[in-house]
Amino acid sequence: MYTGPSLDARAVHALLPEAVVHPPIRHGDLTTSPVGVGDRVVVLDGQFFQSASVRHKEICEVIARGVVVHGAASMGALRAAELGPYGMTGSGIVYRLYASGLIERDDEVALVHTEPDTGSRSLTVALVSVRVALRRLVRRRAIDPYDESRLLVAAEQLPFTARTWRGILLQAQGISRQTADTVRDLVEGPAETWDVKTQDARSLLARLALQPETSARSSAASVPTTVHMENWRRSADTESATLLTAAQLYGDDYPELHYRTVLQLLTGKREDDLDRLERYAVDLARQRGLLPNITPEPAEEGNQHAVARVLVRSYRWSCGLTPLPALADAVRTAPGVARLCELITEAEQLTTELAARGYPLQRVSRAALHRHCLRRWNATALVPTLYDRGFTDLDDLDRAVPFAPHLVLADPPGLRLLNR
Is 352 exposed, middle or buried (0-12, 13-18, 19+ CB in 10 A)? Predict the structure, then answer.
């Protein structure tokens, strides 16, 4: 259950005592989730401003696992309207408004809320909540349609970060005092009495409480796997990613391991002889017409290594898929991996201690990290050195941030991965 401002954890457990409650969903949450056949996932709220929103393919991927995915209220309603043909189940008024095309804008459900550890309390109001609340007041003849229109225009003109009921009432032109008082009286009450998002969330959970989990069945349309989806899966392997990043940072001879492994991946050869691997790689580049883009000179003898080096440095861009699994496996079989694992543990412990003292990773200086890496690797130019260590660019070096305190403060001696 991914929820936040639409319905807090206490309200969720009152309706579904066995529910596992998570903060608003974001990109990567479903990819790393262990859910499988027979499980139910409910998406109510999701992030999209402070982090990447949950991707459509992520939802389709868990549906393909045999998981039943329900959406309502907010991000869940939006994604369910988009993914109905692919097996996601939507419910509630917000979902139906999206599915019918009566509303289309993403910011219809957007609002600002506090952090999950403080209850994800709403600080602004969603446009769809304003829209439905005003329409209900008109139907009860508590306000007239003209005031409804003025209030709705005011709400639409405000950005979601500033859309509050107070701001809407101040922004609206020409509404009567009676209308303003009616709206204030309504929204001063509990959210479940006027907020359609909260009402949709409660309605879905009440229905699921009456539906046994064993009766759930997934009916997903076939969705092809893309390079992006496969890379998300590979990136979700945090243990491999951590091991590889540590090897790239601490291993004095990691560039040698990286060079050999990527050449093997490029050529499909399990050859250990570097000279042969380079020849295979250059021949492959020649066959594919790549050599004119790499060097104007014939790829013979002296510049064979230079051509192979370019191929290795550009490997991640050329093939699309990250070589994370193969590189992590190469590190796992290296003689120095035991000491590398010790360094990872030391780094994690130091980071935890510093965070407890008020020095979180957010305070790590990227410039200082770059300078330290240059010194540690005995290099004068950072970017080419990053390529030789398997980083794609300076932004990719941000993977080193969790290790920065250990690198700088502990400054462990160089590590040989390939020969102990």
Answer: exposed
Four-point Cα dihedral 368, 373, 374, 378, nearest 10? 140
Q: Taking Cα atoms as reference points, which of 202, 210, 249 lies closest to residue 401?
A: 249
Answer yes or no: are the C-beta atoms of 333 and 317 closer than 8 Å. no
Asked if 383 contacts 393 with a C-beta cutoff of 8 angstroms, the reply is yes
Closest residue by Cα to residue 7 from 116, 85, 100: 116
In 3-state terms, what secondary structure has residue 46?
Answer: strand
Contact 77, 203 (CB under 8 A): no
| Structural contact between residues 8 and 122, judged by C-beta atoms closer than 8 angstroms | no
Which two structure tokens, joined as six digits, stand for 154? 């005011």
Q: What is the pTM of this model?
A: 0.71
Q: Distance between CA atoms of 295 and 285, rounded to whole angstroms?
A: 11
Q: Give the bridge partners for 90, in sequence order.
A: 71
Burial of 257 (C-beta count, 10 Å sphere; 0-12/13-18/19+): buried
**Hey, which bits of 72-166 come out as E strands?**
89-90
| pLDDT single digits (tens) 133-157 | 999 999 999 999 999 999 999 999 9
Residue 152 burial class via C-beta count within 10 angstroms: exposed 0-12, middle 13-18, buried 19 and up:
middle
334 contacts: CB under 8 Å, gap ≥ 6:
247, 257, 340, 417, 418
The HSE-up count of residue 135 (CA atoms within 13 Å, CB side) is 9
Q: Report yes or no: 3 and 44 within 8 Å, Cβ to Cβ.
A: yes
The rounded distance, in Å, linking the Cα atoms of 324 and 329 is 8
Least Cα distance to 223 among 83, 67, 77 occurs for 83
pLDDT score of 215 more than 50: no
Report the run of H or E that residue 150 belongs to, with start and end.
Answer: helix 145-157
Round the CA-based radius of gyration of the chain to a whole number and report it.
28
Tokens of 234: 């590979």
Q: How far apart are CA 79 and CA 30, in angstroms?
A: 14
- Please give the Cα distance from 235 to 238 (Å, whole number): 7
397 contact partners, CB below 8 Å, separation of at least 6? 366, 369, 370, 373, 386, 391
For the cut 80, the answer to whether the pLDDT of residue 296 exceeds it is no
User: Backbone phi, then psi, for 58, in 5-degree steps?
Assistant: -60, -45
152-173 pLDDT tens trace: 999 999 999 999 999 999 999 8
Whole-angstrom CA distances from 244 to 258, 341, 350 are 10, 11, 19
